[in-house]
């Protein structure tokens, strides 16, 4: 049985838009290209958004992906890494215009105070994106906002006590508390596995199942009857409690002529939060300016790679612009960091410990926060040892995305920096495969 993971980093400028497919097939004649063309596979998307100045590039890539998968295609897993608009403001267009049938949505649990801070930063840097109805609803009530896509399940990911399944923790059983978190399609099955327990929220008939899960769990994708040969989609929540949220609330309360206590009490009401982000942008901008600085909030990272050992025949082919590169080593996985703030040693070490037994499978490592120096630690490259480092970049040079010191670190580590901007030729297309021929 051969496993193929095709993945595309789509060129949308400052933002993030990644699509991937996991396919299982017997390749008796060695013609895996034919298998990729005929098998639909497990389809997943990680983020879909860009700053408003790149809206045309974002919409172009949404249209191309929709044409590729076809109307009414099944989107098995939609992953939202965090709530900055440049990662999510294309999600609604992708799903509704493509008429995608969303099965499961995965996103990190984020407190309302942090969501308000995120929204205020967007209102300051990209006010056009801040005026999106969907984005405002996502900030006010994330579950309600993505429920409009009619998913079967919504998975809210919290920090867990163990590492990723396969990294020092068991990965051969369903997550405790809700063994029914699974799905299937033509040629594949997936099941949520790992340590910890799931907390399923009560629901009304006809509404999505909402489940809070630890990041010590993962979606294990496999073909019928081939449990050992599987692919993992494993999250990690880089969570930061930012003291600046207190400053934000203090200033916002003053702007709204409220006490902080009354403001915090009202934040439990999603309609109140929606009113804030809809009608009081100037107040939010003023509050943001009071705590402005280089900081990142909660972000979900994602491993997409083999669940266990890589097969005896394997490789990863990468196309970027006018060239392609093929590696024959057993590093075929993809590891994304979203906007995680990994510059501090403690947070970097926690991230690496979470994925510790998967790092030797990683070929492609997306740089944190568009290659920002404020969120990068050279230890990431020393421990992961990737061959390729994609970064979604803006043309605004003073943002330093990617930063010169990060670029030098990637070169010194012997990896290739793959800069994806709004130019169609900068797309990164990868095909990774793992196969163990039968005796």
Protein architecture, described:
The chain is built from 15 helices and 20 strands. The protein is of the alpha/beta class and 439 residues long. It folds into 2 domains: 2-238 and 297-435, Ribonuclease Z/Hydroxyacylglutathione hydrolase-like (Metallo-beta-lactamase, Chain A, 4-Layer Sandwich); 244-289, no CATH class. An 11-stranded mixed sheet has the order 9-10-6-5-4-3-2-1-20-14-15. Strand 18 (388-392), helix 15 (404-412) and strand 19 form a beta-alpha-beta unit. It is globular. It starts with a strand and ends with a strand.
| Percentage of residues assigned to helices | 25-40%
* Count of domain modules: 2
Q: Write the CATH fold name of the largest domain.
A: Metallo-beta-lactamase, Chain A
**What strand line-up does the widest sheet have?**
9-10-6-5-4-3-2-1-20-14-15
Basic shape: globular
Q: What is the annotated CATH architecture of the largest domain?
A: 4-Layer Sandwich
Task: Describe the structure concisely.
The protein is an alpha/beta fold.
Please describe the structure with a list of short key phrases separated by commas or semicolons:
single chain, 439 residues, alpha/beta, Metallo-beta-lactamase, Chain A, 2 domains, seven-stranded mixed beta sheet, globular
């Amino acid at each position: 049985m051969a496993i193929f993971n095709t993945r595309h980093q789509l060129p949308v400028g400052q933002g993030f838009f990644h699509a991937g497919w996991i396919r299982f097939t017997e390749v008796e004649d060695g013609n895996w290209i034919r298998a990729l063309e005929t098998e639909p596979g497990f389809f997943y998307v990680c983020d879909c958004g860009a700053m408003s100045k790149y809206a045309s590039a974002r919409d172009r890539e949404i249209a191309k992906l929709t044409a590729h998968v076809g109307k009414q295609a099944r989107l098995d897993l939609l992953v939202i890494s965090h709530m900055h608009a440049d990662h999510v403001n294309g999600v609604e267009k992708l799903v509704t215009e493509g008429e995608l049938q969303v099965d499961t949505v995965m996103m990190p649990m984020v407190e309302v105070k942090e969501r308000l801070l995120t929204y205020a930063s967007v209102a300051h840097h990209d006010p056009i994106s801040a005026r999106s109805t969907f984005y405002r609803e996502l900030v006010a009530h994330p579950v309600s906002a993505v429920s409009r896509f009619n998913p079967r399940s919504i998975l809210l990911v919290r920090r867990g006590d163990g590492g990723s399944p396969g990294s020092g923790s068991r990965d051969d059983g369903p997550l405790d508390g809700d063994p029914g978190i699974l799905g299937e399609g033509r040629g594949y099955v997936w099941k949520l596995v790992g340590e910890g327990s799931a907390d399923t929220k009560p629901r009304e008939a006809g509404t999505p199942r909402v489940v809070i899960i630890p990041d010590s769990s993962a979606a294990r994708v496999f073909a019928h009857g081939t449990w050992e040969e599987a692919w993992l989609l494993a999250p990690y929540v880089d969570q930061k409690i930012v003291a600046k949220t207190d400053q934000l609330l203090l200033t916002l309360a003053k702007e709204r002529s409220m006490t902080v206590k009354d403001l915090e009490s009202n934040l439990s009401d999603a309609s109140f939060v929606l009113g804030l982000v809809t009608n009081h942008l100037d107040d939010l901008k003023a509050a943001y300016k009071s705590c402005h600085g280089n900081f990142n909030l909660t972000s979900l990272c994602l491993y997409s790679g083999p669940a266990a050992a890589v097969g005896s025949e394997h490789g990863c082919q990468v196309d970027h612009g006018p060239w392609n590169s093929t590696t024959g080593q057993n590093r075929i996985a993809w590891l994304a960091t979203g906007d995680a703030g990994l510059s501090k040693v403690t947070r970097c070490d926690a991230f690496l410990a979470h994925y510790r037994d998967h790092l030797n499978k990683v070929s492609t490592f997306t740089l944190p926060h568009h290659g920002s120096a404020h969120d990068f630690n050279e230890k990431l490259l020393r421990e992961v040892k990737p061959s390729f480092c994609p970064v979604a970049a803006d043309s605004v040079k003073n943002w330093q995305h990617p930063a010169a010191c990060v670029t030098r670190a990637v070169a010194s580590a012997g990896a290739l920096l793959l800069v994806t901007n709004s130019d169609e030729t900068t797309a990164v297309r990868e095909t990774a495969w793992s196969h163990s021929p039968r005796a």
